[in-house]
Amino acid sequence: MIAGRSLAQWKSDFPLIDDLSRYKEVNWQNERIMNTADALEDLELTKADVHDAEARLKRFEPYIETVFPETAASAGEIESPLTEMAEMKSALKELYGTPIDGELYVKADNQLAISGSIKARGGIYEVLNHAEKLALEAGMITEDDNYKKFDSKAFKAYFSQFSVVCGSTGNLGLSIGIMSTVLGFNVTIHMSSDARQWKKDMLRSKGADVVEHSEDYSKAVAEGRNGSLRDPKSHFVDDENSKTLFLGYAVAAFRLKRQLEASGITVDETHPLNVYLPCGVGGGPGGIAFGLKVVFGDDVNCYFAEPTHAPCMFLGMMTDYHDALSVGDFGIDNKTAADGLAVGRASGFVGRLLREMISGAYTVSDETLFKLLALIYDRENIKLEPSALAGLPGPLLTENKKGTHIAWSTGGDMVPDEVWQEYYDIGKKMMT
Ligand SMILES: *Cc1c(COP(=O)(O)O)cnc(C)c1O
């Protein structure tokens, strides 16, 4: 029995489960999607919460600019470009034999400053939020101060009595690790032992303590959480349930709106925005989707993209069982080269919050991810990690609506060249 039903019953209630368990690329359309204003009513998070997160990031900009000089051009704002992909659009047409109706853009979070992935949104925001809270409580700052003050011996000495802990398959650990060590916190990152070696090495080189676990990721998170909760001076970053992390991601929507306006791209009922978000546990893509629904309402369609071997959010939302089910319950092995998306059990909080707002979800094979990784380099000269490609075929794997298509490219810049070259060679081989 699986959550009270037999396997045969599950497959008869949800025929797509059979396809998922055979690792097919499939598409789920959410029939319970509602008009956005109604869906947003009475939720535990609101537009005001996203504005609050945006204002907090704004307060930290002078500090970020000081400690990460690579953000000087944007005055300490950590944001990625929106880039049209005309070449890739025609490459996708060749690959799939179907044209994309509308323009194709990439939102290049692979280029985000500090940690080169989507986690530079939520992860860094959560650490800053925690630092601000501690500094306010200690009377070391007021919200009107210049936050450059955080870059001082006194602040670092104060934060050195506290620790930040998280469980991570990789990129979240990088963001939390880098931001926390720079502020002066002690940092412990719990990782699964099969996480990429270069990520562990990089974190250790920044001064973070990396603890490796041979059991699966959920177990690593549970152990990290338990250890941290016993210690009042320790803050646990909860990838599955953190509203703070979620709101840090959501701020992207306000920024994207400004970018679209600056590029003269209209978004309205007849020119919808279609956004394809690579999804792991759900916080990153969920936070961004929530922000987008707050900003664009019914004019935006958001889709979650997952590997065929780790379709946890697809499964959770389609069945409405959310975190009560894991992909392993259906024999799905959670083994994928898309390490940022290798999650077997989705965030229940994210799935429930967005149940009436997401347009759908689809799965992509590792083979497709590798091919697209090679293709986007050949055609557009950009280097992505496998997870970051999942959004790209979205217009062809969903209903292929008209309007503007944005594939969120979630990571890549931190990947060492030799590791990226291995990915490229695999993709190249598959293309021939
Ligand atoms: C973490 C991550 C995602 C997905 O974010 P979740 O919050 O886990 O859903 C997508 N792509 C990359 C590269 C990531 O690191």
Can you offer a commentary on this structure?
- By secondary structure, the protein is α/β, with parallel strands linked by helices.
- The protein folds into two domains: 7-43 and 73-114 and 249-431, Rossmann fold; 118-245, Rossmann fold, CATH 3.40.50.1100.
- Helices cover 45% and strands 13% of the residues.
- It has 18 helices and eleven strands.
- It has helices spanning 7-13, 16-21, 36-40, 47-67, 86-96, 119-137, 153-159, 171-183, 197-205, 217-229, 243-250, 252-262, 283-296, 312-319, 348-354, 366-380, 394-397, 417-431, and strands spanning 27-29, 82-84, 103-108, 163-167, 186-192, 209-213, 234-237, 273-278, 300-307, 360-364, 404-409.
- The strands form two sheets. The protein has a seven-stranded mixed beta sheet with strand order 1-10-9-8-11-3-2, sandwiched between helices.
- β8 (273-278), α13 and β9 form a beta-alpha-beta unit.
- α6 packs across α11.
- It is globular, with a radius of gyration of 21 Å.
- The N and C termini lie far apart (44 Å).
- The relative contact order is 0.16.
- The mean pLDDT is 95.
- The chain binds pyridoxal-5'-phosphate.
- The site of pyridoxal-5'-phosphate has 20 residues, from α8 and α13.
